[in-house]
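Appendix B. Chain record.
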Amino acid sequence: SMVQIEYEADRLYGARRTFGASSRAEGFLFGVRPDVWPLDAPILPLVLPDLPNLGPPPNLRSSRPQAQNQTIFYGTQPLKTYNPSLAAAPRGLCPRCAFVLALRVDGLHQCSSSTTPYRSEQTLAETDWFQGTAIAVLDASLAILGWTWLVNSPPYQIATKGANPAAVRAARCMQHGASDHSFLPSWAKQTFDARIFNVAGGLVVTYACPACLFSLSPLRFSAQPTADGGVSQLRAWAPHRITYPSVKWTNGRNQVLFTYRPPPRPSAARNVSSGAAGAAEERDVRERLMIQPRLGLIGSLGRPRFAVHGRRVCRTHVPRNPTRPFPPVPSAANCHGDFGRDPDCGTFPDGSTIDVVRFEGVWEKRAKLQNDSRAHVEASLRASGLYGGLSLTSNLVKVRWREAGADGGGGGASGGGAGGGSWFGGGLLRSGGAGRGAAAANGTGAGCEVLLGVGHLHRGEGTRNRILHRRRANGPSPWEQTQSRVRRRQPFAFGYRYTHFWYVLSARYPFEVLGASGEFCLASAQDAADCESIQFVSALAHATPEAMAAHMPRQAAGARALRPVRKRGVWNLGSQSTPPPQSSRATLMLAYGVNDCEARVGFVELARVLRAVRPLVPGGRICA
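Structure tokens predicted for this chain:
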């Protein structure tokens, strides 16, 4: 695949000097200098076709007193996409639908010194910048089948039927019937850095927005399958939000969601068909939705399920109050949609019949803190020069760890558990061996299932972050006060000089942090010995055979493709009762953002990843 952008030298990390022998190794995690990780396949850019450039809505009036130049204020903003999130597609969307992709779409990018809006304080101050979320559907080879804008607040973003068409266009409001990307997104209730997660057969979404606390929203989809198994008339909307204002431990920016299914109680086998007792046992073993706001801080949000409560015809409700004009005049900040219209209708036109779906079993009072081992984790994972400490980055994927030997050093993996394949945490979990690379590392024991994730840290603080957070680094960077001659400042507004680390959690309660790797960054296509200064791995998934065949064919030799099957009127990726051959190497797909400018997917063999992980406790073992 072709790399989209070649970055200026000062937008790369400078790994030769910062990771070189002249830096102090003791300032990095585990006292080991970071690695520049080469990817195992060419980089795959994630590019939305027909992405428009936008300017503010014509009727938007800035509240900023310095916004005097209307030409600047209403100027066109070239949009960029980055910080992707990837999850398994919901059941029944289309025959070829394998993944759903969320992308941050933003006018505030940092691609180059000549194009970034941060180059001009006047332009930055006098413009109301767009920040939003696009939702795309991908097939198993990661080809984009279609995309649309996320409607995260229907009453504020969709105009009421009957509103003046000219006023609707001037306010940039969505209209009933909108689908795919044939409409422009609303300026109201903007969200960004959305994270999507597959749970209970459907999707949920979390996101960042101005003044937002942690929230969870069911993500609804609608589409018409095409003759080739793709999608048309794609819609994606969040009918409601579940918020956690009083649960302070959930706060953060990059919370990680995962699921846990407790083992059945010993009495479960006797009570499977015993009426109320059997139903109680079934509820008890239903998977829990878990959250990790910080590394080592784990809580439960409840037992989620998507329940269909009948069907409903979408209608616009006309209020009978004669003192209030109807329909109200829409504005860019509030489209004054019909609050009496069921949010499940999204942008469906009036007269459409829709399923009324509720996301149940999860709400604020169900949130329960399960484990807080942050002090132990922070004592074990020490590094200097950090702004903000260790942060979480991506979802988790389940893998099987096998100890390398009695000394407990090194590990190996297979891409799944017993039986066929199953969907877990937004990635395709495969059973079977990990190939020659993992087999060399694997021991002979049965091993254990663990949850694999990615964290990040950064050692550069841009001017905007300095104003926003007013924080200091936790000590000097490893290259400071050395002869490495590293340029201290880089031309970024927020954090930069990012590195990542792998970590593994126990897949069972209390979900301890069992191990971690040293720091790494992903090799840049323009310089294999360096990385972009801003890299943000925001999603992990097990690679499908189709993706491996399309992007790393030598490793995919012999892998069996998924076949869509239709069962009871619902499309699913087909039978996985036969594990992939031992010769096919288990591989991870890493979706990541680069320099607040573009989104990519990289491929890394799983065996490489787990060989880099070491037990958190010196001399310990991952599998107790």
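Further analysis of this model is presented in Appendix C.
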